[in-house]
Amino acid sequence: MPSILLVEDDEALARNLTQFLTAEGFSVKHGSGQRAGMQLFLSDSFDCVLLDLTLGDGNGFSLCKAIREFSQVPVIFLTASAEESCTVAGFEVGGDDYISKPFRPRELVARIQNVLRRRTPETPKLLKCRSITADPSKGLVTKNGKEVFLSALEYRLLLLFLSNKGAVLSRDRLADELWTFSGEFIGDNTLNVYIKRLRDKIEDDPQNPEILKTVRGLGYKAVDE
């Protein structure tokens, strides 16, 4: 049974789509906004994402971009906008298809089946850095084989670093990514707290980090082995 993540803030439309897609043989989980959608995506495995562009706590472009940091799951944008610029932007951030509202439910099913046929099954990619391993398909992080328990924001931060090993990530980018995920403003002090908490959980000696390095004046990076 193909699993669908539906991110849509129109509750009536989400309810009707969920009922229809379930009747068509899909398993559907619904998130009402950007933050809820990302939390569901990180906590489960999906075959396709249906993503509204306009969300109460963000937008579909940002969520698709965040998903593409570590997954190639098919993404279909749902939108009331028929402007060419929106379509182009959707493909540029990694979308696979685009359907304008209002749409016929059976057309949506056909588009879902089409992207599923085009995609080869995605082999879950383990993200590793020294003693740390993250399995995005299971939402699991281990250190030397033992599970490490992270908060949702700590987990998002770790995935961002492991997906960009060796690259320096600026404090502004990290704050923007966490803001996109949480829907709440992330200031310098808050970012410092999350970096410290993450180091406390993944480093042998958090005061002398060997995995998550500070690059003075630029930001942070996960070491590239």
Notes on the protein architecture:
- The protein is α/β, with parallel strands linked by helices and 225 residues long.
- The protein has helices spanning 11-23, 34-43, 60-67, 84-92, 105-118, 152-163, 171-182, 188-202; strands at 3-7, 27-31, 48-52, 54-55, 58-59, 75-79, 97-100, 127-129, 132-135, 140-143, 146-147, 169-170, 212-215, 219-222.
- It has a 5-stranded parallel sheet, with helices on both faces. It has a 4-stranded antiparallel sheet with strand order 8-9-10-11, covered by helices on one side.
- Strand 4 and strand 5 (58-59) form a beta hairpin.
- Helix 2 runs parallel beside helix 3 (60-67).
How would you summarize this macromolecular structure in one to three sentences?
The protein is α/β, with parallel strands linked by helices and 225 residues long.
